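Changelog note: in this version the structure field was regenerated for every chain. One regenerated record is shown below for reference.
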Amino acid sequence: MDNPPSPDLYDRVIAKINREHKLLLIKRRLFLYSFSLVASSGALIPLGKNLYQDLLRSDFLEISSLLFTDFKSVVANLPDFTLSALESAPLLSITLAGLFLVGFVYSSAKLIGFFISLNKFNKNLI
């Protein structure tokens, strides 16, 4: 009456457990990368608008336009020009927009890499 288990039952059970564990990790990574992509892209829109408004309010665009209109004077007075440009630049807005832009690019790259590794994982399951 008692049928002995097949010799490869243990290996099949362990393989199934490992596969389920990998699928759980895949789901977690998909959620994490997708959430970070949505959050960073959602933050980029108001930060971009804020950066644009701050650039218009500051004299940074007017000072930086001197690079194209009067380049010889800029080169002759480069230290003064650099200090004036840095003083008038909206550094906080530029920094925040840059950080979230880096986060967006990083999340996009990780999500693309995740889908590539997911494709390899699916090929191994077959």
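Spot check on this record: The mean pLDDT is 88. Residues 9-57 form the longest helix (49 residues).
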